[in-house]
UniProtKB/TrEMBL annotation, chains C, D:
It is an enzyme of class 7 (translocase). It catalyses: NAD(+) + NADPH + H(+)(in) = NADH + NADP(+) + H(+)(out). The keyword Translocase applies. It is a multi-pass membrane protein. Pfam families: PNTB_4TM (PF12769). It is found in: Cell inner membrane. Its main location: membrane. Coiled coil: none annotated. One of its GO terms (biological process) is NADPH regeneration. It comes from uncultured Nocardioidaceae bacterium. This is proton-translocating NAD(P)(+) transhydrogenase. Residues 8-91 form the NAD(P) transhydrogenase alpha subunit C-terminal domain. One of its GO terms (cellular component) is plasma membrane.
Amino acid sequence: MPTWVQVVYLLCAVGFILALKGLSGPRTARSGNLIGAAAAVVACVLPFVYVDRLEHVPLMLGAVAVGTVGGVLGARRVQMTQMPQMVALFNGVGGGAAALVALLELRHMTDAVGGGELPGFDLAATAFTIFVGSVSFAGSLVTFAKLQELMTSRPVTFPGLPALFALLLVGAIALSVVTVTDAALAWAVVLCVVGLVFGVLLVLPVGGADVPIVISLLNAFTGLTVAAGGYVLGNTVLLVGGTLVGSAGTFLTLLMARAMGRSVANIMFGALKGGSTLGGGVASDRPVRSAGPDDVGIVLAYASRVIIVPGYGLAVAQAQHTLRELVDLLLKRGIKVDYAIHPVAGRMPGHMNVLLAEAQVPYEQLIEMDDINGEFKHTDVVLVVGANDVVNPAAKTTPGAPIYGMPILNADEAHQIVFMKRSMRPGFAGIENELLFDPKTTLLFGDAKDSLAKLLKAVESL
Amino acid sequence: MPTWVQVVYLLCAVGFILALKGLSGPRTARSGNLIGAAAAVVACVLPFVYVDRLEHVPLMLGAVAVGTVGGVLGARRVQMTQMPQMVALFNGVGGGAAALVALLELRHMTDAVGGGELPGFDLAATAFTIFVGSVSFAGSLVTFAKLQELMTSRPVTFPGLPALFALLLVGAIALSVVTVTDAALAWAVVLCVVGLVFGVLLVLPVGGADVPIVISLLNAFTGLTVAAGGYVLGNTVLLVGGTLVGSAGTFLTLLMARAMGRSVANIMFGALKGGSTLGGGVASDRPVRSAGPDDVGIVLAYASRVIIVPGYGLAVAQAQHTLRELVDLLLKRGIKVDYAIHPVAGRMPGHMNVLLAEAQVPYEQLIEMDDINGEFKHTDVVLVVGANDVVNPAAKTTPGAPIYGMPILNADEAHQIVFMKRSMRPGFAGIENELLFDPKTTLLFGDAKDSLAKLLKAVESL
Amino acid sequence: MTEGVVWLTIFVLSVFVGIEVISKVSSTLHTPLMSGANAIHGIILLGAILVTGTTESTFALIVGLVAIVLATVNMVGGFVVTDRMLQMFTRRKPARSPADTDGGAR
Amino acid sequence: MTEGVVWLTIFVLSVFVGIEVISKVSSTLHTPLMSGANAIHGIILLGAILVTGTTESTFALIVGLVAIVLATVNMVGGFVVTDRMLQMFTRRKPARSPADTDGGAR
Ligand SMILES: NC(=O)c1ccc[n+]([C@@H]2O[C@H](COP(=O)([O-])OP(=O)(O)OC[C@H]3O[C@@H](n4cnc5c(N)ncnc54)[C@H](OP(=O)(O)O)[C@@H]3O)[C@@H](O)[C@H]2O)c1
Ligand SMILES: NC(=O)c1ccc[n+]([C@@H]2O[C@H](COP(=O)([O-])OP(=O)(O)OC[C@H]3O[C@@H](n4cnc5c(N)ncnc54)[C@H](OP(=O)(O)O)[C@@H]3O)[C@@H](O)[C@H]2O)c1
């Protein structure tokens, strides 16, 4: 590899660093992403320039074209509510590509040396990529299926699962050792299959709301496989880029889990231990006060200060556009309305911002938790749309509750609270919300989108 | 070099990263420093273990012992007010050591090849280290002399200075080229001398209060010379450690300059351009209200809320212990007293914290600017001890003033303000402070230590 | 330095860079950051090109082409979708809706 | 990879680590951080030992010994003085002076 190519590769790696750096600040995020894209394109064009006898160029360019069309179409068409599954899908294909590249690498290595001595470290890295890449591929596809509701989003477990897990892990280690000592392609393919099964089983027991954490973790895994691939190929961009994603992704996963007040281990294996009540709550039959859209409409129309608390249910119902119409209507009536954004409301961290931005909600109306928490006590009506845990006072009052310690929105301090949900079932954490039984609280049952549409009509007619 | 040694070196480099990481957080700072020390010791012991024929071991150990005694004595004996010059001194000897090591390296290289082909990059790095190391050595000694008041702390310039500067720089570049092409030790020694002269001239035009910025910059320079030395010796610890210090030091210099509302270029070369009024203010003769220690003592003794604003003059007068006694006395009388700490008050950033900590002022009484700025309007008396710019309202009101835009302490909002200073001379920025002429303001002229002692007596006798 | 130690050094330093660079991210940006990082590991496309372009067997070629397609989807799709998300974030600032009056009674 | 590019890579990554690692430092810690960084470049002592331990000429030996003394002063003095400074920072927390009453009229 000529020196100038190595330097360009290094510059591309620096581009990735700058991209991540940019992405972590609101003002620089977009340019950061573009820098990353530019670095990636430059790095991928380079082999066509410097590799002496690059073969199959037309075929490869064709494959790139196919992939580009697929990627762009997918990225353009996807709705903002489906963003998590899109990221999962992109991550999965990346992991799959890494595993395939490693398989080809292994073939190269065995061909080149022809049974002679092979570098052990390189083989180990290859085995790692094959296994983890397959895990990432299969796991991501299962998360996709869960989020796209192609299968149940509830945790799926069966009695022998932990044992099967252990068995597969031992098998994978054994197969890796065989691959390293024998350098036999056949074993590697088996390793690949074990990885696929392992990936499926890893994600099955995770509940729907926890899936974003799993995506983030698999994302970090894929990064590490790419780094290992870079080591084997002796390529700085792959090594640095992959490692960056691996370490940043792992750290980001921890950040996300912390914002939810949980540990990563609990999220991944909580259902296996069986002791967790998460996601397993049952509907309570204690009496509550419910009302129809017309009554709630009157309450809203004559308030002077309203705060909206959007949550997971808003995303499920895809009701963000209807919600914005309602808010616009209230604003026109001279009512001061804001959205209170909890960091882990929605399907992914920061997801509520994306959803509401897509519905053209002006930036100024989205207020972060810490900035709005002091205002609830001056608020006439809090409208909780498909949220539950993020306003559950148990986070402050009940040590031992699964969400104890998680910061919440102080909706309980408002003069009146309206919950829009479909039933008395608890939220994601599976615990009852005392706020539902508060004398200040009114429930408006039904799908968020339907209810909001009715509410809109009710307010319009006033 | 055996592989295990390389790995240990890498671990030492990681230790330095962790050290810097630790040092940047208040709770981890001390352990960070200890990790750095441990990494340094391990790295320095290593050659005695793995280098096959290490000669002069007893002599080298003796030199280390001498250096250790010197370093420990210096570090233990120095007073907290003299911390900046101590850091300058340590930095200088480090730069000097780097330059000497580079000279020896050059000798090795020429000896080894004996006039044959020499690696150009290595020679360039060596020339860099020789020049910059000398600059750092000489520059640090001059800053030491300025701060220790072995010479005037005012900016020293003379007409031909910019030209001389340019000449020396061109000479240094020429000498470096000669060193790289000829690899002649004699030229390198000349380069060393040029570096020394350049270092002296670089620091002479910088005023006393700006010297900390220069120390920080020279610190970063020394880091880079060590990194270059690491490149030449093919040693990871030197390369990583030196580069860390170089980049972190440069960034820290920028942070410091920003906290002062100035640019680094302005600090280094402001006096050369001649246009700067910084440090050149003259005493005003507009009328002010001054009072004696007894009057001020009464005002203090009958206040219920007092805030102390310590500044550069407190450090100069070394009055921190007397100040603490006064505050303790006021506290005993049931008065609520706090210190308002401006980030760039004192001789170095954060220096006020160190000074007051040394005087055993409890942590709870030191309040950072952002936290105390809201309280001035509820304060009876603000006692400004040797501070000026950090309470100058011109920073808010006068666009174009040298300190315009610098955040200040809102002392002007208090009911009464007492300034303790020796004269009507302006502060470091050289501009008048309108607050001195405010009807709410009283001046207590005299050296801060004397005045405080008198004030202490006055309050005691009440 | 030994080849292996070189790679280890680069790996270790990259780990620190990765962690430190994102350690100040606000939770609002978690999703775009995840998606952007996801796009970055699409750089495995480079690896796929290097491996495929030097292979002779037809079977390996087919596997390689599949890898290229998958990696391209990851890379291109990832950057485009991230940009789409971020576009909405930035567009919001100037887009003051006319309804955004502040004329509440309080 | 070429030897030179290896070093360049390590250098570039270290630059990022250095900047990012301290980018959250509060101004209270500027002075100890400067002093701690100062101590770290005392690691030139390692370089001085390596060079001096392999020299034969007496003159070079003397220069090398001087370098060792200077570097040791930098390293040892730097770490000790930083620790002394930081010790005072941490000691403050428990050291609530008895005079620290909060009994003001307000
Ligand atoms: N954002 C993240 O990154 C993330 C990731 C993983 C986990 N989590 C967790 O998810 C929870 C988020 O809290 P949250 O308050 O937003 O949600 P939540 O506590 O899960 O509550 C969602 C509520 O929406 C209702 N709902 C569901 N579908 C609806 C529909 N179509 N129409 C109307 N209502 C509907 C549900 O009640 P019904 O069933 O009665 O309608 C439920 O009470 C937290 O516990 C958080 O830790 C967040
Ligand atoms: N902390 C840093 O890192 C740093 C570094 C470089 C520059 N600076 C700059 O330094 C300034 C710091 O502001 P500051 O308010 O602390 O200081 P200042 O504005 O320089 O004012 C210091 C005051 O102390 C008085 N003084 C000097 N010696 C005294 C003594 N022995 N007894 C009593 N009073 C004495 C001086 O007045 P008399 O002469 O009349 O007594 C002067 O007005 C800022 O402009 C900042 O940008 C700070």
